[in-house]
Amino acid sequence: NGHENAYENILVETRERVGIITLNRPRALNALDAATLREVVSASTALDADPGIGAIVLTGSEKAFAAGADIKEMAGRSAPEMYLADWFAGWDAFTRVRTPVVAAVSGYALGGGCELAMMCDLLIAADTARFGQPEINLGVIPGMGGSQRLARAVGKAKAMDMVLTGRHIDAVEAERAGLVSRVVPAADLLQEALDVAGTIAAKSLPSVLAAKEAVDTAFETTLAQGVHLERRLFHALFATEDQKEGMAAFTQKREPRFTHR
Ligand code: CAA
Fold first, then answer.
1. How far, rounded to the nearest angstrom, does the alpha carbon of residue 198 sit from its chain's CA centroid?
2. ipTM rounded to 2 decimals
3. How far apart are alpha carbons 60 and 107 in whole angstroms?
4. Is residue 205 a contact partner of residue 260, using CB atoms and an 8 Å limit?
5. Which candidate among 208, 215, 237, 257 keeps its CA 20 to 30 Å from the CA of 98?
6. Which residues, judged by CB distance below 6 Å to any ligand atom, belong to the binding site of ligand 1?
């Protein structure tokens, strides 16, 4: 249905209402170069615009979700070049995707790989996953939001530990810290992610988008304003047929048949 375009560094497929983007640059452990950024943004934006898609899964290979931004591509650049190109700013477009994105992480999620996973809405890890912000070992710091999203996800203590030492954490520590929502055996990772995405894609889309917007707002605003926005979104959903259908189905003890999916 038009999503399986010829990309160089990613694979794109759809299964019913779920879009799947697979990072596929094995020779560089899926290092995120400028071309990969363009492709991920292009594919996710196209899936987002498709009313037939209700959730997206972003995954990598067994060995690496992504081993970071492409170090070789950046190494020789000057500060003015980085500044004028606004290096990494292109990823902001990925965070503007409204369709929920489930990251399925196996193996290394380091530097920009960890940061890309944290841009997703829900993070599922294989027991082989390793997360880290090793930029400090390169004489730099995270540049795709790691210092901010890690601090919000796991708190100051662990964020400082990871960002200052470059230490990797395994899937168990990542779950304990609240970075990932589930850990599954590596062999089950994609199926688990597809099940979660399929579950989300079966709901009424307006309520899914409102739910994502409401939770995201918790990280951008005061408690009072966040609670206010949530209540207004809640009220607005009473304008949908799916609210009537969902509540009628509950009282009639049957499954809802949502229109907006
Ligand atoms: N950029 C460019 N190339 C990379 C890469 C990266 N981030 N990570 C791995 N590669 C390349 C390697 O150079 C190697 O290529 P060659 O075969 O041509 O030498 C290939 O991928 C395979 O990697 P290794 O041989 O190193 O594999 P390994 O199993 O021995 O080690 C690893 C795996 C521990 C993940 C190691 O590759 C590694 O430390 N990678 C770099 C991790 C890192 O520092 N990430 C942060 C990048 S900076 C950043 O992300 C900035 C930001 O905030 C956005």
1. 16
2. 0.98
3. 9
4. yes
5. 257
6. 28-29, 31, 67-72, 88, 108, 110-112, 115, 134-135, 138, 142-144, 146
